[in-house]
Amino acid sequence: MKEIKATELTDNLFQTIGKEWMLVTAGTPEKFNTMTASWGGTGWLWNKPVAFVFIRPERYTYEFIEQQDTLTLSFLGEAHKDIHKVCGFQSGRNVDKVTATGLKPYITEEGNVTFEQARLVFECKKLYADMIKPELFFDKELIDRWYGEGHGNFHKMYVVEITHVWVDENVK
């Protein structure tokens, strides 16, 4: 993987996050978990390149994010939707996702976990987090649509600084 500056990214991140999806990974090289996410974004905040992701507290990965200061966002490309299905619908409490998917963990110089299959990786440091609060919605229909019966708890939003951007030099 080759490091580039966040300002050198050429991806349409609306497409990358919304259609390709990403793996959110946190923990240590010895014990980590990853999950599929398709809600989030990137931008410029507090004079830093940032990403924001939304994680429900019932997700196993949430525990790892809460315990660590860093996480990775890994983009595998649309060819790996099979991996995303396992990592999005199976819990790491019950399934070894690395074995089930064939993911090959890669440890960055900073000690964060990503995967050899990734074409793009954001290595991130937590800056801010807060729970989504129902009383703060302007469009109340969103509550029923995304948090109504059977949907799960409200997400926690994390704003993370993108400290490193890695791209696979072999992927065009």
From TrEMBL:
Name this protein carries in UniProt: Flavin reductase
Domain (Flavin reductase like): residue spans on this chain: 20-171
PANTHER family given in the database record: FLAVOREDOXIN-RELATED-RELATED, HYPOTHETICAL CYTOSOLIC PROTEIN
InterPro entries listed in its UniProt record: Flavin_Rdtase-like_dom, Flavoredoxin, Split_barrel_FMN-bd
Protein family (similarity comment): Belongs to the flavoredoxin family.
Organism field: Phocaeicola acetigenes
Source superkingdom: Bacteria
Pfam families, alphabetized: Flavin_Reduct (PF01613)
